[in-house]
Design a protein that fits this description.
Strand content: under 5%
Number of helices: 3
Order of helices and strands: HHH
Structural class: mainly alpha
Radius of gyration: 12 Å
Number of strands: 0
Distance between the termini: 40 Å
Shape: elongated
Largest sheet: none
Length: 50
């Protein structure tokens, strides 16, 4: 089960990165859950000028 859990976690992180990158390309703030998955603080992210 540990291998399956690791693979699932990797795909979840990859999905969050894709969603966050898509939101940034559209000049929007990514969803809270995607930022949290990537370990990015929402307040710190909002200081970036999109």
């Amino acid at each position: 089960m540990t291998v399956l859990r690791s693979i699932r976690s990797a795909f979840s992180t990859f999905r969050a990165a894709i969603h966050a990158a898509s939101a940034v390309e559209m000049h929007r703030v990514p969803a809270d859950k995607d930022l949290k998955m990537l370990g990015i603080n929402k307040v710190a992210f909002q200081t970036i000028h999109l």
